[in-house]
Automatic annotation (TrEMBL):
Domain WHEP-TRS: from-to ranges: 241-297
UniProt GO molecular function: asparagine-tRNA ligase activity; ATP binding; nucleic acid binding
HAMAP family, per database record: Asn_tRNA_synth (MF_00534)
Organism in which the protein naturally occurs: Salix brachista
The protein, known as: asparagine--tRNA ligase
Amino acid sequence: MGDPATPPSSELAAMAIVDGASLKHPFSDRVPVRSIVCRPDGGAGLAGNRVRAGGWVKTGREQGKGSFAFLEVNDGSCPANLQVIVDAGVEELSTLVQTGTCVSVEGVLKVPPEGAKQKIELRVERVLHVGPTDPAKYPIPKTKLSLEFLRDHVHLRPRTNTVALAYLLIMISAVARIRNALAFATHSFFQEHGFLYVHTPIITTSDCEGAGEMFQATTLINEAEKLEKELIENPPPTEADVEAARLTVTQRGEIVAQLKAAKATRDDISASVAELKIAKENLSRLVERAKLKPGIPKKDGKIDYTQDFFARQAFLTVSGQLQVETYACAVTSVYTFGPTFRAENSHTSRHLAEFWMVEPEIAFADLQDDMNCAEAYVKYMCGWLLDKCFDDMELMAKLYDKGCIDRLRMVSSTPFERISYTEAVQLLEEAVKGGKEFEKNVEWGIDLASEHERYLTEDIFKKPVIVYNYPKGIKAFYMRLNDDSKTVAAMDILVPKVGELIGGSQREERYEVIQRRIAEMGLPLEPYEWYLDLRRYGTVKHCGFGLGFERMVLFATGIDNIRDVIPFPRYPGRADL
């Protein structure tokens, strides 16, 4: 029997000192707080390791007459905080200690003095990033808060020609299983890499893409129809009806006055006052009904949305990105996976009015991290289908696309080519000079068409291609402006058969820059004030991307029309069931 004071070998293995680099987040340059403080030993076994950590200051205090400060830093990877100690010689302490401040720091993990609550603490040697917060303006104080209060600051509160009918049935069921496998793979990939699944709203008041092609969510039309029907069945009062009711009120009032003057009994006066009250209520109802007009309510010649269900214009979302960023800027690594909508009157084989998007966001990460994560995710899904859905893939290869399995194998095992947008345009221009014809002309500044994207990935490189640094004029306002002021830190992943599969970017974290970009795009500032708050308070570099889920199913199966890879397709003129 072993020494009872000696921990079991499994615990010894868990407590063994490891290299700080092995703890690093796979798509960021930091070590998650969870990897440090959630070990069986509370992190003590990591003492001596140099790490880089980042998060938001929950509490901070200066000690030793301002010679150093204690910070409780949390990145959302676990409930526990990491205690961080910063000397005054390293950074200005007054900025660091404010609640809500975002910090990225590098230092050495050390065991605190005996008796301390923490098992490990980080002695900071370098402060890499500070996203300051003005304590006079920061809406979330350190004091105990009510749920009602936090509801008013929800964006900061956290700090998702066929051969036969049989052939059709076989193909549809196979596609359904492949779609299911890809959805499972999506959650598995992000869960395995420490991402939090966030459910973003389907109804929104902001336009992520800025294109204005959104379905409006309103009850004004229904209410107007109900009112019109009701006014036909029960016409509003005429002016004569209102005057008659007003006269009744006057008469009832005179009777009350006469009774009081005659010193009538209390019961008689009370009964007369009650009749006067009823007359006044009837007059009030008639006056309000007389104001009712058929049609949608208007004010100053425009639709009065204050009378709508949400008291403002609302739409079906085109993307959950903006909303999920609120959680990325509090718990660092998140993703949303849900339906999105686009009111684009397009009948092509590539467009749907309702489709699903996978949208991860990563804090403390840049465009390179974004590309690394997106490439790893696509490869993971391809490998998942080969490992766990091979029978269905063999069926698709036999019945529909002979090359679908080889395509998955190629993508899962081949490094993606990475070229700038400028290099991509140059390659396309050279192809045109060599005799290649495109329907859409090629020149710097265009939004690459599907024919351009597929030529790059299918003909030139014969593998997936990541194109990055696009002209700012063809990309959204939230993408980070590069130093050349002409391009943004955006990237698209192009794959054979489909073209663009993923679109992403490093997000603009600089308040003044993104405010200017919103104005340049001709968008109103008011609907995005909550989004700007993420830059006002505790700003941090972050990135993300969106994968059109149906396009991934198209790529995997080789099916040509996107309407065939979603169970209930919605497109112009069709919204069955």
